[in-house]
Fold this sequence. Notes:
By secondary structure, this protein is an alpha/beta fold. The strands form seven sheets. A six-stranded mixed beta sheet has the order 3-2-1-4-9-10, with helices on both faces. Strands 11, 12, 13, 16, 23 and 24 form a six-stranded mixed beta sheet that branches. A hairpin with a 5-residue loop joins strand 9 (230-233) and strand 10 (239-241).
Amino acid sequence: MTAKSSPLFLGIDTGGTYTDAVLWSEAGGANGKVLAKAKALTTRHDLAVGISGAVDAVLQKAATDPAAIKLVSMSTTLATNALVEGQGGRVALVMIGFSEGDLARDGLKAALGTDPVVFCPGGHDVHGNAAKLDLSGLEAALPELGASVSGFAVCAYFATRNPAHELSARNLIRGITGLPVTASHELSAKLGGPRRALTTLLNARLISMIDRLVVATEGFLAARGIAAPLMVVRGDGALVSAAFARQRPIETILSGPAASLVGARHMTGLDNAVVSDIGGTTTDVAVLDQGRPRLDPEGATVGGFRTMVEAVAMRTFGLGGDSEVTLEDGALNPRILLGPRRLVPLALAGMMHGEAVTVELERQIRAANPSRMDGRLAVRTGVPERLAAGLTGAEAKLYELIGSTPLAVDRLLTSNAQNATLNRLVSRGLVHVAGFTPSDAAHVLGKQANWDAATARLGAELFARKRDGRGQAIAATPEAISERVLTTLTRLSAEVILETAFAEDGLDGAATVAHALVQRAVDSHPGIARLSVALDRPVIGLGASAPLHYAGLPPLVGHDCVVPEDTDVANALGAVVGQVRVSAEARVSQPQEGLFRVASGESVRDFNDEAAAIAAAETDVRAIAAGRARDAGTDSAEIEIASEFRVSTVEGQRMFIEAHVVAVASGRPRIAV
């Protein structure tokens, strides 16, 4: 069968800076063939613009009839970036059966921030027995909350053993407000209420963002006549339908990195490697073992929050081509610091807005003395106005001053307090800040040329004027500071790769050791104690800027660095070569001797016989997994069931404590006929 007669698969990756597209065919060898690939800028105000730019370019390059595309699959770093940067919609958290003291556990209070929380009496015990539920306080608060939040997160005590109270709250909220509601039992069957509440809160916060992505993609596909199923990559590398992902967007955290792992394995054929994927906002590092990515048994950690989402054991660092460049405070010879916040590169802002940017930068260069606010501009992101609900008076006033044309921050802010207000608008996803980044440094040195190099040079000149602890300029020329920034990015990349390796080996103090080792490797006077380290496997470098930033990696990590030919679209390629994989769980407990309680899905049933209870649990999870597999986008799922028992022996007699039954369904996604 030739590539022309084979079904075509379209992969899309919507990243923080770029949207990638790749057209792939199963024909053309063991690994198929990339027929065309393209990039376009991610347009956060209207994601369809960036998607259409990338996909239209691919279709034009391949001279392909859109009707020949039988499957579209998408990965995204939007959810990951949102958590790293502290962005997302304003949501209300409903805690049933918990106390205010529970907010202090598992980072829940930090994640909640200034968003509202409502406590209600209720919940269940470990066997699913109910306490008295009282939702009157929630009902009274809903009219006001419904006008100031974009969604709700509901978590009840031991809801994984009986979700009845979460269902009651969910129905009440939907009936009064009509807003999206996420219930914790829908996302995880694990115990640990505060962490489950954290996961649910983050999910609710991400719904509007992922919903906009899916709607934009579906609208574009319909406009181009592509009548193919739309799939989304989950954080464990599996594929699920777009409808499935819209309800559970938290599962798309690490979607892009997971897709990149699948793509890295596909492109290189390496079974064992450290995969480092550098994007505009983050660097994501993970380990391939025997051809499969390592999964994190404790749940994915992103932006400092440990969730209950099963995902690749990926460590995400706020380090990328568009990372904010700052100076270490108070040092005689200050170090260059990168990230974790992403800025709009000045080169990109200059390309998009022209003189509105360059006039302000030139004005600042003419000033006699440098300012902390030099080289910074603010601009609205262009998100719908409804997402600006719930702003404080100070936030609303500042937001009014910022428009669709970049405004210099030194003209916008009159006090340090306003800088904190601006940062809150950025965290809400309402405002972008443009400033000097490694991408600008690359433009200054002629190593990147896709945006406006002249604007980048103005930004570098402003940054080079900053003073060290002696009052001297930190660099003589824009080129000199740009070299320092790029060298710092390579060094920090080596540090995060080694930190990941140490952490995977279970070593404490991984970040400190990694920093010391890399510092000794680049130091011309390494000291009395000689230290060296080498990875036991090569690094696979992914991302459009990997050839630039990873060229100097091998001597720092002690092994080769392989950068595949299609590294710039690894995520998009990984999105189309994966499989659907979903699971379902049930628990069987013994609340009293001779009574066996099965909690599966949204049902709780009692049996008088252990064998009957286990059989019922297996039947339930098989049916639930099959249904989820269909919803997730496959008609040919294979289902495997595993059971784990907790028992004890008392005077020679076996005593049943609990059983955990898991069904896993997997299969290739359905394609258009």
